[in-house]
Amino acid sequence: MSSFCEWAKTDDGVFHLKLTGVDGHHYLTKEALHELKQKLAEIREIASSSSEPCRGLITSSSPSSTDAGSFCDGIDHKSLRANMAAPVAEQARGLADGMAAVVRELLAMPMPTVCAATGGAASLGLALALAHDDLVVLSDAYYKLGNVEDGVAVPPHVAALVREKTDRWYTLTTLKSRPRSGNWMRRWYFADCEAASRDGVVREAERLVGEWAGEDGKVHAEMRRQLYRESWEAVSATLTSSARYSTAMGFCTVQSPINGIFVLTMASSDGHQYLTDDAITDLIASLTTVRDTPGLRGLVTTSKLGSFCDGVDHGAVGQPDEQAATARVGEVIRLLLEMPAPTAAAVSGDATSLGLALALAHDHCVVWEDAALALPEARRGRPLPGYVAALLRDKVAYARLRKLLMLRAEACTGKELVGTWYSANDPAAADREVVAAEACELLEGIEVGNGKNYAKARQAMWPESCAAVGMEITKPPPPRPRPSSPEGILQISKKEREKHEASDHHQNKQTKNIHSTNVGDSESWGVGTGCNSSSSTIPPFATPVVTVPHVANRSRGRSGCLLRVVGGMTMGTRQLAIHSLAWSRRGILPRCQLVYR
């Protein structure tokens, strides 16, 4: 299969991206959009991490002949109609979602971008041209949107680009689908420059790149997003709502090979997957997108090449930024702990420092047998955030392994780690692809009824880790302390007395009735009338006695102390008072009454 595009970097720091379709139309198919997005992501990653100056990006096309060929004709509607697998509108919507990922890469590019439209452009091809900072057109070429003419709705992010780039000619361009020449577009400020030949178009684009006034690419990208805020927000909303297309964030790529199960792949140019500021931003955005996607069944996190994740690059990041990065990694771990579906880390490479914490934050871990896992901070003399120790305590079963990892900075392999995690699974074979496939298979076999309840169950299982990243965990109330003396057991609070006042009064009446109907000398029993006694004073040496109203067996002790027979067990007054009140609180006996003898 031939390549759709290719890029090269010149000695003066200018990237040239060329569309190389063989038919001269450069139609945007699903495969072409995916390749174009990947090439732009590679350029953006190099421009962000390179120490050498990157002056700009020029996008052009290679025609099939010297005098023929378009810059990009967008969607081939004849091909869509010939494909009976899906309706034309649905196919066009999928391609528009793919173009949203391309436009996002261009809007986030940390350097000036110029489109050298060396031929005509139509449909999504015109949107591709407008997504650049500057546009140079060929004088005699024609440009149009054409969606209304083709019977296809204009995607929101394309409409936003046209509104922000074409001013008052929006209606003419969008609703009437009129083609306009390059000369006309330059006259009405659609384009920045025009040229009569294809080589002239490229030369004008190089001149525009050379006029760039700034030197900080990140500042340029941020100002671009502020200037074209509507387009940026429309692209972000399209990518968030689309679960059919992979969402490219530069450092992260999210795909859904199985219905409802998403695979987040981390990839950087050096293979370390360092958690830089941009990488953490991409992680947070990707995880938020996955968390808010309807029908989510699971998330697998893996890496493309090299390590799984090596944490923060201490050699490149200063101490203040390092502390900020540590706090932001805590946000990533919090998103994983809040995920309303099962999560699995497919550790297909080394996981060190905060990269190991990232793996531990998942519900399950499938580890490559040759992967090295370590926390080298103790050897390097650097502190670790509190959530790393909390994750170790929650997830690593053996205290000795926790000590070796954190205090001695010793590394262990995936093969050595089998069975030491509560959520670990047998490591896969040496093939990295098998690790991710096994993680997907693991999550596919888990059925979750309610995602929110699943997240609450995870938080209840690992409360220390959740609290370490700032999550509010509802803890059960502490148990009531046991009284240390009989007086504490007999003590009844004011609130409790008010609550049961009516019940006590009723039971006092029952006690009087039982006393008056019992056979024998009632005076010899010495039964009082309860706390609500008619007696105005209580004798100073009165002995408190608990009366159980429904117990009729009574007898007098040898010393004149009142006794009670309960369930065949004879007790003294003080012992009975203690046990009866405890029984009544448990619902075993009716509520006891305190009387005086």
UniProtKB/TrEMBL annotation:
Residues 495-533 are annotated as: Disordered. InterPro entries: ClpP/crotonase-like_dom_sf (IPR029045), Enoyl-CoA_hydra/iso (IPR001753). It holds the Pfam family ECH_1. Residues 495-507 have a biased composition (Basic and acidic residues). CDD domains: crotonase-like. Residues 510-521 have a biased composition (Polar residues). It comes from the Eukaryota. This is Uncharacterized protein.
